[in-house]
Design a protein that fits this description.
- The strands form 5 sheets. Strands 9, 10, 12, 13, 15, 18 and 20 form a 7-stranded antiparallel beta sheet that branches. The protein has a 5-stranded antiparallel beta sheet with strand order 11-14-19-16-17, with no helix packed on it. It has a 4-stranded mixed beta sheet with strand order 5-6-7-8.
- The chain is built from 2 helices and 20 strands.
- The longest helix has 21 residues.
- The chain has 2 domains: about 50 residues, no CATH class; about 160 residues, Jelly Rolls (Sandwich).
- It is mainly beta and about 280 residues long.
């Protein structure tokens, strides 16, 4: 067999390109990460073995709900995967994009770890907030009011599950007819990792209110911090409706009290299902 001497630079370049193209063709067939023998049936074969004492796993792209909505998906992206956080109730969900309906669909969701929740329990008749004993944390937390005419715990027309699927549907705290306040003391969320989120259900009785007439504050161990809702929708049909509000301000894990104060003669307010997660 005649040997070939590669003294010609042009021939060397040709051979190099042929070798490179053959490697590319192989890579396009199967790609292996952590393995030199990827499955012939796969496009990408990920091997979990790192060392004799260490293994790894696949971590999909992680985005918030807001960031997910910025992904420029089209029907051609059918099957795209993302791990999404930032849902209204604090869930995190593994989702796939449905190219037919152009929607993201949850495969599996994990509920938020709730550091504190208060549904107000239930009552048989209107009851002053400092007298009610049916709170979820009655005995470990203190529920009080400093006004001469207290806010009340009521059950007339509670928020329904048809309106907000996660609603407890029982009693709520009612603020109307002058100055009213409601204070929850003795909250202990120190075992949870900050930043945390404050969420509640809120109702207003007039179309013009943005919610600002009801002051919402938390005590962080040294000072009161105002986190009032001021962005409830206004206009026709926005009164007499329950809204689920997730406050944008992050909470520290030093919160010990939450206070609600209606200081005007403005609209009636109702609050329910307070959560910190």
């Amino acid at each position: 067999m005649q040997s070939i001497t590669l003294n010609n630079p042009s021939m060397k370049r040709t051979l190099f390109l042929l070798t490179l193209l053959s490697c590319i063709a192989y890579c396009e067939a199967q790609v292996g990460i952590g393995t030199t023998t990827p499955s012939n049936a796969s496009v990408l074969d990920l091997n979990s073995y790192v060392s004799s004492t260490k293994y790894g796993a696949f971590l999909p792209p992680r985005v918030t709900l807001t960031q997910r909505n910025l992904i420029p998906v089209t029907a051609a992206d059918d099957g795209m995967m993302a791990y999404v956080s930032g849902f209204p109730n604090g869930e995190r969900c593994l989702q796939l994009f449905n190219g037919t309906t152009l929607t993201w669909v949850s495969i599996q969701c994990f509920s938020a770890v709730v550091a504190f929740s208060e549904t107000m329990g239930s009552v048989s008749s209107n009851t002053n907030t400092s007298v009610h004993t049916g709170y979820d944390h009655y005995g470990s937390c203190t529920y009080s009011s400093s006004t001469s005419s207290q806010s009340q715990v009521r059950i007339i027309t509670p928020v329904s599950n048809a309106t907000i699927s996660t609603a407890s549907g029982g009693a709520y705290v009612y603020f109307a007819n002058g100055n009213r306040d409601f204070l929850i003391s003795g909250i202990n969320i120190s075992a949870y990792t900050a930043p945390l989120t404050l969420q509640l259900l809120m109702y207003k009785s007039t179309t013009a209110s943005t919610g600002s007439e009801l002051t919402i504050e938390y005590y962080n161990g040294s000072a009161w911090v105002n986190v009032s809702v001021t962005d409830l929708p206004t206009g026709t049909g926005t009164d007499g409706v329950w809204y689920q509000k997730t406050l944008s301000t992050s909470l520290p894990n030093t919160v010990t009290q939450i206070r609600f104060t209606r200081t005007t003669t403005g609209p009636e307010f109702r609050i329910d299902d307070i959560k910190i997660f």
